[in-house]
Each structure stands twice: as structure tokens, then as C-alpha cells.
Amino acid sequence: MNIWIKKITENKIFCLLLTLNILLVVFFLFAPQFAPNSPIEIHADHTLLDSSGQYPLGTDQLGRCFLSRLLYGGKSSLLMTIGIVVFISLAGTTVGIMAALAGGAAEQIFMRFLDVVLAIPSMVLVLVMVSIFGNGIVTTTIAIMSVSWITYARISHSLVLEFRESNFIKQAHMGGVRSVRILFKYVLPNVFPHIIVVATQDFGDKLLLLSSLSLLGLGAQPPTPEWGYMLSEGKQFMQRAPWLLFYPGFLIFIHVIMFNLLGDRLQDILDPKET
Amino acid sequence: MKKVLLCVLSLLAAVLMIAGCGGGDKKEEKPAPAKTEKTAAKHMNIALFWLDKSLEPAEGWNAWSLARAGASECLTTIDENMKLAPVLADKWEQVDPVTWKIHIRKGVKFSNGKEMTPEDVKKTIERAVGKDKRAAANANLDSIKVDGENIIYKTKAPYGALMYNLSEPLFTIIDTSKPAEEIAKTPVTTAPYMVTSFKSGEVIELKANPNYWGGKPGLDSITVKLIKDDNTRAMALQSGEIDIAQKLDKAGADLFKGKSEFNTLEVPSLRLEFAFLNLKHPFLANANVRKAMAMAVDRDAMAKLFNGEPCGTVFPKAAGIGFDKLNKQTFNLEEAKKLLAQEGFKDTNGDGVIEKDGKPFELNLQIFKKTAIPEALQAQLAKAGIKINIRQMDDTQKNLEEGKFDMSLNSYITAVTGDGQRILEQNFSTKGADNYGKYSNPEYDAVIVRLAGEFDAAKRVELETEAQKILLQDNPDLFLVSGKTIIVTKNSVKNLKKYPLDYYLISKDTTM
């Protein structure tokens, strides 16, 4: 563990990226405190206004303060995405490790089942689930979680498999070390960094998926502000009020890029042989 | 370092791509653009918001596209002042309550040179009634006989709306001797313009009818194309690809404000935006609850957001059917809250939503098109403690027919043929085909029966006003706003009439 902490802190660029990412996430998690107006209150006389003192980034087609909507939208988008990524990485990893340690027929059947599900594009699976269980940010989040944990199960399973057959684990078994101890002292510390890398890189992917579903009208429902949904609202005003498209799109773009960069850097540090 | 550079480059590329997308849709090549000298050919390009898959007039709404292109003529028409006017029928009289004697104009030729006779009128109408349910309902036909220059039209029951209904493009008079496949592509009519080619659901090519009875049409040829997306239609006009963009929304119309090269025509439309209520819902079955909901809606604010006019009754002001005399649905939030409290609704758990008998007042509002209205309605009803969930779907029709809805937003042209009977009957009478909310009031049904048999135009308006009075007591629907039809044209386009009915556009005098 100490080795990694040393490696991480030595890498200046990584520290910078990590700080920036943390600042970005924390800012948007607390952003609603900075919002000048209500994000959902409609003002019929103030539609499609340019920036002004009262509305720093102007208003949308229903006269709602655009900046406030972006800030509240950020909080809900990021919270959902972080929640999804944390859940799927923990759940998927646990299941994958258990399958690997179980061994035998159970493991084989389970892994082949995962292969079948993975063969179907995740977007299609999510769309099917949403059409069965209905629209809304909650059902969409559950739908995304229920198909995305599988990737982590496969990764952790194959990582554990590597170690299971290695000599030092066999020796530890023969020396009488209990399985649980093997798990926590040897297996997890080797699986964990890989999972963190994948999860960090996956953050951008999940944010995009959530926003795409909201863009299609399946995720966030009105009047909830959410960046993907704001994009779908803004496209009809592309010429008249282009800021309605630009800002949500730009914010999604920045977050995805930042987390991808962070994940890449982390991968360079923790998994140099994988690059 | 490399990755940062890559990031910057991709950001730059993205910005350049977005900038590049700002141009018009230049995918299709146009025929030669119209020139301003009198001797050169006058060709006009029009973009409609809707085009059907077939031009068969006696089917669905196909003929509305023909009418917009100036290729449809019926016995009568509704002019730009919403008055019934003669076209192929130059006079008519009522012989008895079920018999009309209609004189067919002489000297009219079809575009193929054939003379248009009363026999053609008889064949067209019988054909339409046989082919289309709506035609059969609206023609109320018992029999037609030809009597010299007249037709003797017998209805099944006394039917005051007859001459109005026959103005609908559904009854476009055509040369019925042509085979069906040809009629579906290039129907032969008596109108100022004739269809020369049709690409299903995409483009209609027309040219001036050389045999037109009403004089020389103002243009030599027309191309009518479909551009569904409002934004794209606006951009096509900006790029010069089209001369007329029909039905732009407010955001599109704003792009042309103050630009002298363009002309904006704003016509108060007869379209009513309103929300059906399902009276089978336990809360909505209560008339006072519906009344309270109607009072919770701020139509003035909604009209501003929608770029329309507030309309707290069935017929917008432009229809001239009792608008100023009626006590319309009006905004009064305090009264609405009082009425709901009186009916036993309270917010017991402080979440902003009122409940009764343990059930929260939460409704699903289904919509098929995203406009400013659903969210405005949601926000306004929320102030009265009613929670609205917006459900957008491609087609709300199935749920309506199966009664699987709480509220459903719709947009109807209310006086489709200049007369109000159709919507009053089909939406609100007990057996009405579009009465999905299952509203039923025998007193109302009785008024509709009297209306059906009334022939005097002034008395019809009185009865239609009385019908609205009953509806405004029972509030089976929430009447919201009426729209404006916005048409933007290049300023070279001349003599485009402002029709409140949006299925009329090009007339004989339109030119450039």
C-alpha cells in the first residue's frame, strides 16, 4: 500500500489532476448553495434572455434561471454517476471474487451467463429495462446499475484467477493460512488498484450514458434539471439561444475528459505493464 | 503532455465542427430559383411541416397537403374571414330539411381539359363517402341525384353543417375516371395548380393549371417539400432554399424579426391546446375538483410562453363563437385552493402535495409533442398542491382509446370547417368519437341534437355558445391557450392570404 501512495504522490501531474477532479466534483455537489435563483420556477415574461444581473447566464424557454439549473443539474448528475460507479464496482468486484474463489461448475456456469449478457450492447439492455419499469431518474439509474456491474465481475474474476493458480497462494494454503486472510492480505490488494482504474475511467462513460438517456427523455423527468435533458430542450433553440446547448454540453465534456485523464494517469502509475 | 495536447486538439475540432454546423441544409439541389423579371418563370419553393404518404384526397388528412399547395377545390370554401364562400357550387338552397339543391358552376374544366360536370361532383362525393369514415360522418349522405346543372343532395337527417363540411379538402372534386394509383399520386382537380409529380412523404411538384376557370394563376410552378423539424425549416428559409416556411415556432420566427428581406405573417389560429381529463379517475370525477384545476391555470402566463392567446373555452376568439359572452375558465389560485380544501384535500405530510383519504393528488399528463405548455401546467398546478408527472410518448391515441390516462394534452383545430358542431359533438357528447374522458350530460346532448338540425347560421352560433356554457359549468377538460400560425416568407412573395385555418396556404393570386 505504502508503495503505491509513494508512487502516487511522486507523480506531480497526477496530483494536479486529482485535485482538479476533486474540486470539480465538490463544487458541483455544493453548487446549489451558489445558485442565485430557483432552478424550476417559471417566469413567463423573462424567456430566452441573455445574461444579466438577475440571471447570470440568461434564462431558458420557460424563463428559468439557466445558471441555477446548471448548478442543480450538476449535483444530481454527479451524485447519480458517483453512486452508480461506486455501487457497480463494489458489487461487481465482490461477485467476481466470490465466483473465482468458489470454483468448479458454479463458477463456470456463472461466468458463461455473464458472457451472454455482456454480448448484448448495454444501451439496448438499459432501454429495454426502462421501457418495462418506466421513465424517471430512479428507474434509469437502477437499470444502468443492473447491467453495468458485470464488467467489474469479469475483471475481478480474471484477476483473482491469476492469483489463485500462482505459487505463493498455493504455498500460503499449504502453510495453513486461512482463506479469508489470503483474500484480504494477498488477493484484494492486487485486485483493488485495477478496479480503481477501471472505475475512474468508467465515470465518464456512465455520466454520458445517464445524460444520453435523459436526452432521449428516459432519464430525468421535467422539471428536474439534468444536463442531458437540458441538451434535448436546448436543441430547438440552437440559433436563437445557443447557450442553452453549449453550457450543458461543455460541462458534460469537461467532466468526462477530466475523469478519463485521471484514470489514464492512474493506470500509468498502478499498472505500468498494462499500457 | 501528449494527452493534454490531444485534449486541446479535440476541443478545437469540436468547436470547429459546431461552428460548421451553423449553415443551412444544402443536401438537395433546387430547380432554378425564381427571377424577378416578369418574363422569367415564376417558381416558388415551399416547406410544409407535414406531408402525407399519399395524395388520395378521400383518405385521412391527405387532401390538406393538396389544399396547402393550391391543388384542391371543393364545392365551397372558408375564406380568410372565416366565412363560407362558393367555389364549384355557386349557389345553393334548401328545398326541405333533408334536401339541398346545389347549382354547379358552369364552364369549369379539370386540369386535363375535361369539363367538370355535376356528374363528377356526384361521383367524387359518393366515392369519398365509400372510402373514408370521416367523410361518411361529415357528408351525412342519403343520396345525390343530378338534375341538369344542379345536384339534389339528400341527407339522412336534417344537417345544418352540410355546406360547411363540404368545404373540407376531403371532398376535393376530382376526375374519378382515373385509376386509384394515379389519383394517389397525381389527382386531377379543377384547382389553380396541378400535381405533376409526387414523391411519397417528401415532395410535390406542381405547375399552373392551363385550364383554370378563375383566370391565370400567379405562379408558373411550385415545389412543396416536407421539412418536419422547425429549426431545419427556418434554416432552409435563411439559406434561400425555400421562399415560404409554414408554421414556424416562436424561436424560429424570432430569427427573422426586423429583417427586411423577409415577411412574417402571424395569424391567430383556431387551434386549441387543451387537456383531456379522465372522469373515471376518482378525484377527476368530482366537478368541483375539475373546476378548481381550471382555476389554478394561469392562461396569460402560459400564452406568453407558448406565443399564443389565452383561451378559457372551446373556441378561440378568432372563431367568433361567443368568446366575449361566456364566463370562461379563468385564473384564480386562491379560489382554487379554497375549493380543493372544501372538497377535503389537505397537505397532511407537508410535502407540498395535497391528499384526500390517504391518496396524494398526483396525476400523469401524457403528451405527444414537447412545447412550453406541459411544464407550465405542471408548475402552475403544483402551486395548488397537485403533482403532475409528464409522460411523453410517440402516440397518445392508444392510451386515450383504452382510457389509460389521467390527463392528456391535445391540439385540435376547433372550427375545422368554419363551424363548431364537429368538435362539440365528437369531443363532448356522450357517444362522441373523441370523448375519451367519458363526460356525459344529457342536457348537453340535447343542445347538440338541436344544433345538428339547425340551418340558420346565427342560431347555430347561439346554440354553440349555449353548449359552451354547459361545458364551462362542468369543466370536463382544461381549456388552455390557442396558438398563432406563423408563416415566414421571402419578401418577394406577394398576395399570401392569412387564413386562420392552416390547411389553406396558396391561392390563385399568390405570386412573386
List the topology elements:
The complex is a heterodimer of chains A (275) and B (512).
Chain A lengths: L1 H9 L1 H19 L35 H37 L1 H16 L2 H12 L3 H28 L2 H8 L4 H37 L11 H8 L8 H28 L5
Chain B lengths: L1 H19 L22 E6 L13 H7 L7 E3 L5 E3 L2 E8 L2 E6 L13 H14 L1 H7 L1 E7 L2 E6 L6 H4 L14 H6 L7 E7 L3 E6 L12 E6 L3 H9 L5 E2 L4 H5 L7 E16 L9 H9 L3 H8 L2 E2 L22 H10 L12 E2 L2 E2 L1 E6 L4 H12 L3 E6 L4 H6 L4 E7 L7 H8 L13 H11 L4 H18 L2 E14 L22
Helix pairs in contact in B: 3-4, 9-11, 10-12, 14-15, 15-16
Structure commentary:
The complex is a heterodimer of chains A (275) and B (512). The radius of gyration of chain A is 22 Å and the shape is elongated. Chain A starts with a helix and ends in a 5-residue tail after the last helix. Chain A contains 10 helices and no strands. In chain A, helix 2 crosses helix 3. Chain A is mainly alpha-helical and 275 residues long. The longest helix of chain A is centred in the N-terminal third of the chain and has 37 residues, at 66-102. By secondary structure, chain B is α+β, with helices and mostly antiparallel strands. In chain B, strands 1, 8, 9, 10, 11, 12, 13, 16, 17, 18 and 19 form an 11-stranded mixed beta sheet that branches. In chain B, strands 4-5-7-6 form a 4-stranded antiparallel beta sheet. Chain B has a two-stranded antiparallel sheet with strand order 2-3. In chain B, helix 10 (299-306) runs antiparallel to helix 12 (372-383). Chain B is globular and about 75 Å long. The termini of chain B are far apart. The chains are: A mainly alpha (275), B alpha+beta (512). Chains A and B meet through helix 10 of A and helix 1, helix 7, helix 8, helix 10 and helix 12 of B.
Keywords:
heterodimer, A: 275 residues, mainly alpha, 10 helices, elongated, B: 512 residues, alpha+beta, eleven-stranded mixed sheet, four-stranded antiparallel sheet, 16 helices, 19 strands, 22% strand, globular
- Between the first and last Cα atoms of chain A, what is the distance in angstroms? 21 Å
| Distance from first to last alpha carbon of chain B | 61 Å
The fraction of residues in strands of chain B falls at 15-25%
Rounded average pLDDT of chain A: 86
Instruction: Characterize the biggest β-sheet of chain B.
Output: 11 strands, mixed
Query: Shape of chain A from CA axes?
Result: elongated
Q: In what range is the share of β-strand residues of chain A?
A: under 5%
Strand elements of chain B, count: 19
Looking at how many chains there are and whether they match, the oligomeric state comes to heterodimer
Structural class of chain B: alpha+beta
Q: Helical stretch count of chain B?
A: 16
* Percentage of residues assigned to helices of chain A: over 70%
